[in-house]
């Protein structure tokens, strides 16, 4: 509409100028011509602006392609883990964190790339202590114990190894096996009171028992490496805390090194139950020289302290040990 008005006024202006110049040039003074030019420009300004807006919008329309799903229009701009998210609610699982968090070892330690095993390599060693952390912990929580012994020049012949458990999907943390809760202590009975073996038994399912034996086999591979390095099997001690204690006990009683290592150290742990584990412990042999040390906190709210004497009784029934 603006273009039509501007064109019509331009044609009328040109025709008027021609007519006036032919009839009487004196009547068309400078003031009249200036007024006509101003009115003509006033009509041309919106027309020119309209053309500018039209061209700009046309270029913008070519730059942006129409899409049906706006969330997918800039898919590559999202982080990789959110790349496939849409408004329809389709989700992709977030990648699990790597097993065991990164920790800086001391200057005299190197790290096993599989389970971040910490070793002291400065001097020639004649004995080895393998210690397993508990549920939700890692090797970094126990390395300072070895560092304290080394700085105090205590047990300089001892090689310390602190392996890390894998990340357990069900527990969402580091674990030697899928954890299970203990049955509560019966009302009216002290945690340190006497009870039958059946009241203390916590049978694990077959899958969990296999996980325990698998972790014990991994510890056996560490023993293999120490024997290859010249350490006598009778000078290798395996210990652990809580869940690590359970794996250490099974390694000393139901693995291929059952009864052959120097000893077992168990802190605030228990001896797992189950037919698969029982069969594994019955199928192994030993000479009865393996030593045993068990300790348990009297106010342990996670693993009842009443399981400590029960654990000791079971172990001595299965295999003779020195204490």
From TrEMBL:
An example Gene Ontology molecular-function term: carboxylic ester hydrolase activity
InterPro entries named in the record: AB_hydrolase_fold (IPR029058), LYPA1-2/EST-like (IPR050565), PLipase/COase/thioEstase (IPR003140)
Role, per record: Hydrolyzes fatty acids from S-acylated cysteine residues in proteins with a strong preference for palmitoylated G-alpha proteins over other acyl substrates. Mediates the deacylation of G-alpha proteins such as GPA1 in vivo, but has weak or no activity toward palmitoylated Ras proteins. Has weak lysophospholipase activity in vitro; however such activity may not exist in vivo.
Record keyword Lipid metabolism present: yes
Biased composition (Basic and acidic residues): 100-109
Top enzyme class: hydrolase
Keywords: Fatty acid metabolism, Hydrolase, Lipid metabolism, Membrane, Serine esterase, Transmembrane, Transmembrane helix
Protein name in UniProt: Acyl-protein thioesterase 1
Any single biological process term in GO: fatty acid metabolic process
Gene Ontology CC, one term: cytoplasm
Protein source organism: Glarea lozoyensis (strain ATCC 74030 / MF5533)
This protein's record includes keyword Membrane: yes
Record-annotated membrane-spanning stretches: 33-55
Listed SUPFAM superfamilies: alpha/beta-Hydrolases (SSF53474)
Disordered as annotated region, ranges: 87-109
Family, similarity comment: Belongs to the AB hydrolase superfamily. AB hydrolase 2 family.
Catalytic function, reaction form: S-hexadecanoyl-L-cysteinyl-[protein] + H2O = L-cysteinyl-[protein] + hexadecanoate + H(+)
EC number: 3.1.2.22
Domain Phospholipase/carboxylesterase/thioesterase per the UniProt entry, residue ranges: 120-304
């Amino acid at each position: 509409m603006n273009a039509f008005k501007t064109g019509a006024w331009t044609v009328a202006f040109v025709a008027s100028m021609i007519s006036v110049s032919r009839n009487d040039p004196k009547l068309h003074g400078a003031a009249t011509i200036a007024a006509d030019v101003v009115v003509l420009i006033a009509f041309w300004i919106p027309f020119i602006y309209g053309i500018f807006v039209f061209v700009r919008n046309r270029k913008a329309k070519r730059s942006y392609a129409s899409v049906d799903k706006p969330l997918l229009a800039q898919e590559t701009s999202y982080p990789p883990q959110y790349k496939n998210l849409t408004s329809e609610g389709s989700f992709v699982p977030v990648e699990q964190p790597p097993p065991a968090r990164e920790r800086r070892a001391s200057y005299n330690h190197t790290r096993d790339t599989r389970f971040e095993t910490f070793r002291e390599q400065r001097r020639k060693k004649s004995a080895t202590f393998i210690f397993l952390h508990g549920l939700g912990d890692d090797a970094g929580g126990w390395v300072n114990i070895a560092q304290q012994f080394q700085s105090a020049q205590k047990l300089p012949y001892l090689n310390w190894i602190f392996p890390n458990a894998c990340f357990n999907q069900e527990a969402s943390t580091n674990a030697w096996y899928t954890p299970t809760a203990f049955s509560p202590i019966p009302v009216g009975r002290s945690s340190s009171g006497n009870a039958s073996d059946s009241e203390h038994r916590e049978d694990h399912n077959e899958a969990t028992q296999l996980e325990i034996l698998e972790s014990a086999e991994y510890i056996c591979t560490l023993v293999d490496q120490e024997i290859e390095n010249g350490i006598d099997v009778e000078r290798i001690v395996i210990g652990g805390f809580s869940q690590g204690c359970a794996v250490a006990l099974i390694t000393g009683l139901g693995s291929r090194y059952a009864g052959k290592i120097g000893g077992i150290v168990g802190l605030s742990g228990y001896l797992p139950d189950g037919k698969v584990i029982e069969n594994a412990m019955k199928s192994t042999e030993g000479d009865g020289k393996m030593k045993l040390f068990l300790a348990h906190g009297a106010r342990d709210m996670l693993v009842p302290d009443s399981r400590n004497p029960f654990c000791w009784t079971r172990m001595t029934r299965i295999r003779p040990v020195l204490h």
